[in-house]
Amino acid sequence: TKLNWFFxxxxxxxxxxxxxxxxxxxxxxxxxxxxxQVQADTTTVxxxxxxxxxxxxxxxxxxxxxxADVYTKLGMKFDPTTxxxxxxxxxxxxxxxxxxxxxxxxxxQEMSPIIAVCSAxxxxxxxxxxxxxxxxxx
Length: 138
Prior knowledge:
Elements: E1 3-11, E2 32-37, E3 44-50, E4 57-65, E5 74-79, E6 84-89, E7 92-99, E8 111-119
Antiparallel strand pairs: 1-2, 1-8, 2-3, 3-4, 5-6, 6-7
């Protein structure tokens, strides 16, 4: 079974039964940042960013390599002093970052964490999430 999934932060208005991901590998046009895997690619995950008025921008295509039945830790950290969003895999920062000054960076929105899954072929499936940690640092 193939599936699309997204892990990251998204505008609160997106917490509805449908509308985050569809089975055509498309994300909703919402304010969001995070990791996105499309059904056709089972070994890599993209980092993406979007505002509700723009098209989804890949920060990095195939930013993360994954394997079946192997846990990997994904994370993001926003540094308010440099206004930089950094993505992480297994505690290691990824090379491609995002500046809050970028025109496609979501601002003026309250963002909430989300894990969204869509079975691309309609077959029931699952995504295992072992734990989640969130921290607010000043």
